[in-house]
């Protein structure tokens, strides 16, 4: 069997975060409902952070670890996002330039709501499997940003935000896909995909979301079940209870994942309802750990859950992870792969938990001011210079060289490295 999968993977979850329980209390949300979100923190995008800074900061450690010869074998850069700031120019061109990659490279972008990251991964996997360029690598960068904005003097307490505000995060997952799957070896051909047209959530305007939260939940549950059932048709002897040592889900919020897992367990296994909670804690919660601290980063969330699973699981022996990705509108996929101890040790070198711990925790007052300042970088901004003094301690929070947005000059975004 041909080997293919994730050679290296890293997460960048920004420089600032917010305690979402404090936010929910500040917004006077129903706290009994809030507890069902199973969330702790959200990454907050500062005005000088955008999908490019998140993506480059996630990818740079991967690129820096390569030899010049290995770097030149990156022949495809795929940006996966629903947060692009240009209708035509792909963000992959910025990634390619800022990371100093070989010009003999395909550069393109995928947009498919929260499914985009896995769409990028599977596109890269099939490029490697095709062997049209033996030994080549693909760089996939899933990056998304939730920005909530108000005009100065406006009211931040908008009814439309409700529970979307605490669960909307920002961040990026970058991964190298190759025939050296040190981190995650794909089970080639073991996949089930399922999709149809539905108006559950969408972005009908450049900076605005719309949708039906109840319909989105139902569509997620439907897709999770049917994508898995299609997987089971294609993989002889598959058993949801025993085939997968861990399960990584796209996680808009933890409560949705818990409901989806409970739904499948009830329909395709004989596990008693009282034992489903134990199974959830053992097989699913390792993948929710990072998601609970970053919140929903759309196209990157299923990959974030996979990273969290690898970081927090027990891989003393090779173990199989089942992965479910869902994107509103909709498309979904259930697939799997194998992780061993070497993969976990390689991942730990990127100190992802430490970087999450080092983020600057914003106050509610700082966050409210941010809702006004974020207008400076909304879609279509032609010229602006970013205020580097806005929460300057956040710019130094990570303790390492970090890329930030400096200005927008005739629509072109210009960046700077801050130590």
TrEMBL record:
Domain of life: Bacteria
Keyword Transferase: yes
UniProt keyword terms in alphabetical order: Transferase
Keyword Transmembrane set for record: no
Pfam families: HMG_CoA_synt_C, HMG_CoA_synt_N
A GO term for molecular function: hydroxymethylglutaryl-CoA synthase activity
Gene Ontology terms describing biological process: acetyl-CoA metabolic process
Domain spans labelled Hydroxymethylglutaryl-coenzyme A synthase C-terminal: 278-414
Residue intervals of the Hydroxymethylglutaryl-coenzyme A synthase N-terminal domain: 3-178
Cited InterPro entries: HMG_CoA_synt_C_dom, HMG_CoA_synth_N, Thiolase-like
Family statement: Belongs to the thiolase-like superfamily. HMG-CoA synthase family.
Protein name: Putative hydroxymethylglutaryl-coenzyme A synthase
